[in-house]
Amino acid sequence: MMIIKTTRFGEIEIDENRAIHFSEGLIGFPEDKDYVVMEHKPGSPFMWLQSLTSPGLAFVIMNPFQVYPDYLKEIPSEEADMMKPGKDENVMIFVIVTIPGGKSEQSTVNLMGPVVIAPDEKVGRQVILANSGYNHRYPLSMNKNK
Amino acid sequence: MLVLTRKTDESITIGNQVTISVLEIKGNQVKLGIKAPKDIPINRTELFEKIMSENIKASQAPDDLDLCLEFMDEEEGK
Questions:
Q1: Which of A67, A128, A141 is the best substitution to test chain B (most B C-beta atoms within 10 A)?
Q2: Which of A61, A62, A114, B72 is 20 to 30 Å from B19 by CA-CA measure?
Q3: Which residues in chain B have Cβ-Cβ distances shorter than 8 Å to A140?
Q4: Could you tell me the pTM of the whole model?
């Protein structure tokens, strides 16, 4: 077990085996290469991608298929290849949620830049799907009309 | 920034594994061919910047997140 400092959750103890290494970091955050995925609270669709090295750096993430069930059904094969961060066939796919301060009803998910994690190898990367036509600000609230 | 002049069919090599070739020049457009290992992401800079600024925005999740999330949890449940 190791103790990590976070500004949102205080000091938390996590199993080293849960640390995911992003060799390139996330886009715009090249210095932070190690993260852990944490539940927000039981039953919530939201999770946190917390940096292990910057206490204040954490992203709200979620399963994209809850917002967009047909996500990734039709993408070019070279983009499908990018969705594999390691040799692992088994991957977990998340999208980052943007919640504007005080305007949570305008929250969006970034379908263009998903985060993919190989849970066995414990490596991850953020991919840019340039040719699939996905929106980087897909409204989260559209879901309620379905 | 290093500036190099290249003609069609000439290339540059970055490090040991990345080669960028000029395939075609037509008016103000240049067609480039890029040879690089699969694990090196290659992106148009404007898209990279779009995702970067969205990530920066997303990293500033509000302090009252729990309330926001409760609001959205309800939406999700519908």
A1: A128
A2: A114
A3: 72, 75
A4: 0.87
